[in-house]
Amino acid sequence: MQSLHRARDRLVSQRTALINQLRAVLLERGIIVPQGRRKLELFLEAFLAQEKNPLSQRTQLLVDDIRAEWRGLDQRISALDDEFTAQARTDGTAKLLTTIPGVGALNATALAAAIGNGETFGRGRDLAAWLGLVPRQATTGGKPKLLGISKRGNVYLRKMLIHGARAALPTLSKIETPLGCWLRGLLARAHVNTVVVALAAKLARIVWAVLRSGQRFDMKAATAS
Measuring CA to CA, which residue among 37, 15, 5 is closest to residue 156? Predict the structure, then answer.
């Protein structure tokens, strides 16, 4: 399962490189497209359907070739995603993790494959530290000062948890729970990216608690401690 995740991550990187190359080809010809993979896709469909556009015939063939390679990567990534979804439905550990907001089939299968039932870690903070989601500390004049996250440990899982936290933040920050109240307080005094990382660290702790207890995540019982 970890090998499949590594393969998917490689395919996503290749797709990102293709999209960046495609944007560069257009930018060199004065064509600027809004950020976002879907926006670029829709723009190209409409742009290339025009009878007249500023691209030469050879450039259009190049763009078509890149788009074909892009579609091929999409299909391969989608096939792996379907496999992860099926695994999350049948694997008990992964299925348990999907009850946590921000932890979908992709995150659940990756975490289950990497840490099992979490027994390697003595507490939730140890898992967060292994993922590089805890703040670094510096001491000046005997006073400790918290810096940015360490970014040490498992890069892939850290990235996936941050993506999951970013997706779950809008919903979690609006609900009337201790976790929602904690998030609203953070949003009032910190940049949204800082809050996303803080939520990712919180999710890591929740993942450990769910794995060690063997119980589904209960939103009402969740606290911000």
Answer: 5
Angle formed by the axes of helices 178-189 and 155-172, nearest 10°: 100
- Extract the tokens encoding 57: 């015939």
Contact 154, 131 (CB under 8 A): yes
Q: How many domains does the chain have?
A: 2
User: Which residue is it, tokens 């299909």?
Assistant: 75
| Report field, pTM of the whole predicted structure over 0.70 | yes
> Pick from 101, 84, 92, 73: which is nearest to 12 by CA?
73
Which residue is listed with tokens 């560069």?
A: 24
Domain that holds residue 27: 2-87
- Listed residues 87, 121, 143: the one ending a domain: 87
Residue 147 CA to residue 201 CA, distance in Å, equals 15
Same domain (yes/no): 82, 116: no
Compute the distance between CA of residue 174 and CA of residue 119 in angstroms, rounded to an integer. 33
Give the separation between CA 69 and CA 157, rounded to whole angstroms: 27
| Confidence bin at 163 (pLDDT 50/70/90) | very high
Question: Using one digit for the tens of pLDDT, what is the confidence trace for 75-112?
Answer: 999 999 999 999 999 999 999 999 999 999 999 999 99
Whole-angstrom distance, CA of residue 104 vs CA of residue 207: 12
- H or E segment at 40? helix 37-49
